[in-house]
Amino acid sequence: MGLTIYDIAREAGVSASTVSRVLNSRPGIKKSTRERVERILKESNFSVSEAARGLVNQTSKMIGILVSDIRNQHHIEGAYMIEQHFMRKGYCSLILNAGDTDESKAEYIRILSSRRVNAAVLIGSSFQNEPVRQAIIDYMPDTPIIFQNGEFSLPNVSSVVSDEVVGIYDAAKYLYEQGRRNIAYINNNDTPSNRKKILGYEKASRELCFPRILYVCSDSAESGAEITEKLITEHPEVDAIIYAVDLIAVGGSRKLLDLGKRIPEDIAVIGTDNSPFSMISNPRLSTVDTKLQELSTSCSEILEKAIENPSYTEHVIISPSLVLRETT
Amino acid sequence: MGLTIYDIAREAGVSASTVSRVLNSRPGIKKSTRERVERILKESNFSVSEAARGLVNQTSKMIGILVSDIRNQHHIEGAYMIEQHFMRKGYCSLILNAGDTDESKAEYIRILSSRRVNAAVLIGSSFQNEPVRQAIIDYMPDTPIIFQNGEFSLPNVSSVVSDEVVGIYDAAKYLYEQGRRNIAYINNNDTPSNRKKILGYEKASRELCFPRILYVCSDSAESGAEITEKLITEHPEVDAIIYAVDLIAVGGSRKLLDLGKRIPEDIAVIGTDNSPFSMISNPRLSTVDTKLQELSTSCSEILEKAIENPSYTEHVIISPSLVLRETT
DNA sequence: CTGAAAGCGCTTACAG
DNA sequence: CTGAAAGCGCTTACAG
User: Fold this and answer.
1) What is A61-162+292-319's CATH superfamily?
2) From residue B44, how far is each of A144, A153, B8, B15, B29 by CA, in Å?
């Protein structure tokens, strides 16, 4: 291929300006001319270069979506909604794996800037760090940015966050009200979001006067199983466990069962995120629903407004709710 | 921002050509000039427009990745590997949800063409249909394309497929060898890939002379549970079930347990894909590993060669293997 | 070692 | 209703 509007113009016996006008459905073109050009456009399977068009229109018609790892089911929902919604308006989404480190994440801000995206979306609290903040100031000070589950007080950055402090606090309180008195909390990765969860757990422990039993594991069902065994060995009195994410709760539950514990009779279990894992696990997991769907919807609505009006900004907080299933 | 190389040139007291040369690390520039320009570039946080650069270099430095739905865990692995790998080489990935219909998928080929991507990747057998094939012929006849789990006999399309006929055949044969004589198969969506699985099941049924018991459900654990109940009611003699995907196998297993069946004593269960679900389910699911990782690696290797040499083409077939866990 | 000019594929005033 | 020209932000021969 490689046809340009000049090729089409020659074929149709008109100028490139005219071809451009029919391409953009501009008024004031003789019907017969328009139809002839349209026919030739169709016949030659012409497709206009969005890059060239963007250069003159000063827009890329692209949205940058940064996720630390797109394989993480938990983060992809927002990316999905945004891609879907804005494709209909002619925007393509650059969905990029921004990596684990603060520096690589900051580097991706620079990459988005060189692609001149019309807006950027950061998904996940792990973007909340100084290098990213500085990169935004340096490279994207005017581009509308939406931060899902984190915030920067920068004039061009909107935020949509889940109130995880309350989410975990409520879970602990519920367990307490059910008569549990030795409620443990198992964290995984150290992220701003997980730090908020710990805060919620500590607040509950303080207010309700139950002992603080806090363990940390990494991000897999196996790791959840291991740490749970350790917890149970060191604290046989535990009668309820809250996990920072569903996946480790599933691994943990399985281990509890293998150790001969009954769920929820001996030990109640609550996960976090209301993920697919929580629904298909056996027993089905009670979980703190961080309202991922709502967060994502909200993100996409804000983005919509920000694209129209680049100085638009909004800050939303969404409260989690407890979903009770078979482990409580 | 909105700085151009002319702004930098003026600031540095040189021409735009010189700025461009230092930007591209071209040799033959006085050291002092280069350093001055570099300093100003840095100080002003300049970031070059990839679109403008691409226009003159006749490259977008973008790769288009089409998936019917990025929330489908099963498809995202390949997208991840490609994004990661080619980002290091300066390519950005347009990961797009191409939708459910043949027409919308074909439409996305056109979209990629207008973005002038350097290569395209189709992930999932559902892209194997005539509208997509025609769109490739019309709009991307020269762009290297890699098809993961499907194929088109077109000069610019490579393919990497999993031999699902063999995968399911082997699963059925294994069950038969274990003494099972009433082996059912439960399919979900009607895709080219699933049709191959049915072929494998039918081949086993024919060769090993066991009765063909085939049911179809939709794509959720609940649906898998429902159809399993129906199956067991209508065919109480069934002593083994193979499912087209792990998720419905998980739903099915759970239902079997609820109905008082023992797994695998009364009924053996095998899923497909060796997905995370199969590992965390309880009991842990035996499954046909379709080697998603290998498929993805292979895709990304072919893409690498195709980017170097746009006429490079390759066709790979990968054999699945059986992973035995607790349900057989 | 450096700059002026042309050109990548478009769009949009400006003229007619 | 239509076309010639300028310009979007770059790069790359070509001269010097």
Assistant:
1) Response regulator (3.40.50.2300)
2) 20, 23, 8, 17, 21
